[in-house]
Amino acid sequence: MSKHDKDTSTSKPKAGDVPLTGKVVLIGSGVIGRNWAVLFARGGFDVVLYDIKKNEQLEEAMKDIKESKLRLLEQYNMLGKNGSTKDLLDRISVSTNLKDALCNAIFVQEGVPENVTLKQNVFEEVDKLLYELSQTKKGDMATKQQWNALYRVLLPPLFHRSSAAIE
Ligand SMILES: NC(=O)c1ccc[n+]([C@@H]2O[C@H](COP(=O)([O-])OP(=O)(O)OC[C@H]3O[C@@H](n4cnc5c(N)ncnc54)[C@H](O)[C@@H]3O)[C@@H](O)[C@H]2O)c1
Q1: Residue 40 counted as domain residue
Q2: Residue closest by Cα to atom 25 of ligand 1
Q3: Residue 94 contacts by C-beta under 8 Å, 6 or more apart in sequence?
Q4: Could you say which of 33, 97, 131, 136 is the most buried, measured as most Cβ atoms within 10 Å of its Cβ?
């Protein structure tokens, strides 16, 4: 049984359990979401950006990432060791369907506006969808791993200090 197949339904993952490759889902593609997208891509992860405003917002986010953020990293020789501007850009995609985005995710992070009710609703929705995915065979690594991902849902402010860990 591989690390990804283990039964995590009864225990939360321990520190160090997080895989070093895989798909990261960012919910909200505003100031914070798009910056984290670049950071995770720079760290070698595949990234899916999801936003409630769907196409218009996501297009703007990708334009900003491509024409501003990645360009700046390249200009200051800060792309890191995991590839070129194109490599990083290729790792970032968008989705207008949250359930599809969450399928086979190894990590989920929300970056929606600072509103408790809104954040609670997002967590509830992610909880529901991860549970549904955990009950299906959709995707290669579905089932228990989806449930596992639930325990890695974090709020951006709590996560700032961890940025060095994914570089
Ligand atoms: N901007 C900062 O400097 C900063 C710094 C630290 C922490 N934060 C925190 O990060 C979070 C996000 O802040 P931001 O500045 O990126 O906000 P933002 O307004 O720039 O972006 C929020 C995005 O979330 C999207 N959104 C709203 N509801 C959604 C939903 N239900 N599902 C999916 N997407 C949804 C919006 O369409 C928008 O694109 C907030 O909690 C904020 O307090 C922000």
Answers
A1: yes
A2: 28
A3: 29, 48, 49, 50, 51, 58, 59, 61, 62
A4: 33
